[in-house]
Amino acid sequence: KALQFQKKSLNLVILILKQTNMVKIQKISNTSTPFGGIFLVNEMFKQCGLSELIDRELGKRNSNLGYTYSNLIRNFFNLILSGGECVEDIHQHFRPTLEQIPDNKVASPDTFLRLFNELAVKNTIYTSSYGNSYNFNTNKKLNDLNIKLLLLTGQLEKGKFYNFDYDNQILEHEKCDAKKTYKRNTGYFPGVSNIGNKVAFVVNRDGNANVKIGQAETLEYMYETLISNEIYVDSSRMDAGSYSKEIVDVVAKYSKLFYIRANKSGQLINTISQIEADQWEKIEIKSIEYEVTSISFTNFYEERNYRLVVSRKKAENPQLDLFEGEYIYRCILTNDWEKSEKEIIEYYNQRGTCEKLFDVMNNDFCWKYLPTSNMPANTSFLILTAMIKNFYNYIVQKVSKVFKDILPTTRLKRFIFRFIAVVGRYVYRGRQWKIQLYTERPYELVFCQ
């Protein structure tokens, strides 16, 4: 009994020592949120007139629950810009934050999924020369809304000429309508155009669709939409997937200048092999030596003054390429006879911005998290997230003028850490709502820009 008493006394002493060394925590019950920066983003959304634009372009939503298109899309923007990756996050993580916003109604995840279906349009079927059919989804209303967003935020201006890039991107997924792509995975193969770091158009396509099928019609639609909004194309850049007579005709019609990577073929290699040795000029691009020259291009046309810029460099192992021999050739088809070969090659290589944009859309703006199991609704999602990316460009441009640790090129994750992640709340004082932030950083100066 004495031994048991000593053990109990010892346990009591240990418990008292643990309690004296515990961290003191004081719980305060109020409406503060760790995502206070999203309140400012929400105000910028409303102040720039985007709510009015959305309701004007999309019209009245057929619903008895009181959620307008602008209300749903604004909350969807807020969700993604706070770090959400799927609509379920709005219920699990962000509802208490978004419900603090005055007069803001926060819908359920199911309502957002219905939104994507409401904004969807039917697929268009393209048939190849071999009789194969492929689904395309061209949501003209949302793509046009995206262009108007860029005009509203001043990222594009009417009457001006811009550089236009087009490429196709594999979106890997395992939804029920996924098709096997040329990379042997399954997914979609949308055509995406961009103007600088801004997504201009998204046209969704079956994953197994050849890159050239329907591309001429897709590009013509994109160019015509830009013209209808008084935006014009100075130059177009595209990879070898656009190298065909039909596509080149469309690009040349709507662009002052164009630069398209030419596919290697027996006819093209035979033409290049006839170039005399003294016609090649040595240049250096990014510390790599090339030989370049230009020849007239007559493969598609005899009468048009098109130019083929040819570059070559020594192959590391010429025995591995019996087709080209000791050199590796690259060709760019263009109608530009003023720039030098080096200038054209360097300008064409800048279309790497398009590849970087795909990385940003996949990893920052949820393109790898498609929400539904049908192409039309997923296309709505892709265009809406492209609009979020363009709106983010507008926000970060304004914020970067005030916050020195945020640049116009800052990725979304860093922006969330340095701008969105601040403790804050809405308070009602002096007969008006005010945003109260627990920080000394100059958030108030953002609205002065």
Overall description:
- The protein is α+β, with helices and mostly antiparallel strands and about 450 residues long.
- Helix content is about 40%, strand content about 20%.
- Strands 1-2-8-7-3-9-10-14-13-12-11 form an eleven-stranded mixed sheet, sandwiched between helices.
- Strand 9, helix 9 and strand 10 form a beta-alpha-beta unit.
- The protein is elongated, with a radius of gyration of 28 Å.
Summarize this structure as a short list of keywords or feature phrases.
three-stranded antiparallel sheet; 14 helices; 449 residues; 16 strands; alpha+beta; eleven-stranded mixed sheet
Total count of strands? 16
Q: What general outline do the C-alpha atoms trace?
A: elongated
Provide mean pLDDT, rounded. Answer: 89
Q: What structural category arises from helix and sheet content? A: alpha+beta
User: Strands of the biggest beta sheet: in what spatial order?
Assistant: 1-2-8-7-3-9-10-14-13-12-11
Give the uncertain stretches in residue-range form.
none
Outline the biggest β-sheet. 11 strands, mixed
